[in-house]
Amino acid sequence: MAGGGEVAMCMPAFVARVVRGRWFVVFASMVVMAASGSTYSFALYSKELRHTLGYNQQTLNTLSFFKDLGTNVGIVSGLVQQVAPTWAVLLIGAGMNLVGYLMIYLALTARTAAPPVWLMCLYICVGANALTFSNTGALVSCVKNFPESRGIVIGLLKGFVGLSSAIYTQLYLAIYGDNAKSLVLLIAWLPAAVYIFFVHTIRVLPYARRRDGEDTDHDQPFFCFLYMSIALASYLLVMIVVQKQVQFSHAAYVVGATAMLIILFLPLGVVVRTEYKAASRLQKSLQQPPAMTVEEPTTTAEKADESSPPLCGGRGGLGCITNMFKPPALGEDYSIMQALVSVEMLVLFIISVFGIGGTLTAIDNMA
């Protein structure tokens, strides 16, 4: 059967190809990252903590500190990623997010006795630490799936984390109305639901390194994703400004949130188009007689380079000690011990400590 009949008959196989493809992993990771920025919404519900639980500004600052501590201490999720599959990392993040923020919501709504401050600090630290698990699961998978475009991948995905708080604002206004307590409930169940929905989609897939002059439009979908993320950011900016100037009804909030979701899911169309082109190229290549090529056998060293980075570097505990001060070439995979003592990690640590602190202070105190 040719023409439309052939397309219709192959539709289930094509859908399966799209869902199993590398570009769908990027799309799923973008949605996960867009749901992972609940930690940046603290200023939106901190007033409820003050009024309901009787906290003063010093107590709020203490809570904010433990929130930021949970957000930025990602060594635990990194260690889990080394010994567990990606789905386990995402499930752990979903559980931590749900438990942490749900307990805060129950305290805010007086469904539980008012917890002591130290316990609230533990709740918010656990809930915020879920961000590191989603970051690790999504970022590591996408970087390994696109090792030659790792900079583009990381920048794109982290951009969606930056938009996350504004996305949450539009959703909670559409679902619950202007109710800050319900915002805490939203950031408790929505990220967990998103992580679980994509838990078997975000994974590391076999990757064949590109050859010179091959697949010249390889990064084109990334640029389409970038343009759509800019459109989403522009839309959110306009909506925030307009909502401050004009009184919106609940129906208007629903319409605005629906339009936002449409823009957020537009990259799925790029994924479908890209996979369709790839399937068409594959079908044409199968119709042509295959060319005989001879490749040199892969050496043991090359096989070791293609494998996942080891936890210590081989030879058990002795390998940890002898290899931790022998970093690989810049751009290659480090073991955890090699990364911890590397100059690059020290530079990143210093930049993060002095560069992120001021930004977090502003975010925590400006709604």
In short:
This protein has helices spanning 4-9, 11-20, 22-34, 42-53, 57-72, 75-83, 86-108, 117-145, 150-175, 180-197, 220-245, 250-264, 267-287, 300-306, 316-323, 336-340, 343-365. By secondary structure, it is mainly alpha-helical.
What are the key terms here?
367 residues; globular
What does this structure look like?
With 367 residues, this protein is mainly α. Helix content is 73%, strand content 0%. It is globular and about 75 Å long.
Fold blueprint:
Elements: H1 4-9, H2 11-20, H3 22-34, H4 42-53, H5 57-72, H6 75-83, H7 86-108, H8 117-145, H9 150-175, H10 180-197, H11 220-245, H12 250-264, H13 267-287, H14 300-306, H15 316-323, H16 336-340, H17 343-365
Helix pairs in contact: 3-8, 3-9, 5-8, 6-8, 7-8, 7-10, 8-9, 9-11, 9-12, 11-12, 11-13
Count every helix, treating DSSP H or I runs of 4 or more residues as helices.
17
Q: How far apart, in Å, are the first and last alpha carbons? A: 59 Å
> What percent strand?
under 5%
Major beta sheet summary: none
Average of pLDDT: 82
Radius of gyration (CA) equals: 23 Å
The residue ranges in which pLDDT falls below 50 over 5 or more consecutive positions are 1-9, 300-308
| Shape, per Cα inertia axes | globular
How does the helix and strand content classify structurally?
A: mainly alpha
Using DSSP, what is the number of strands? 0
Determine the fraction of residues in helical runs and give it as a percent range. Answer: over 70%
Element-by-element helix/strand order: HHHHHHHHHHHHHHHHH
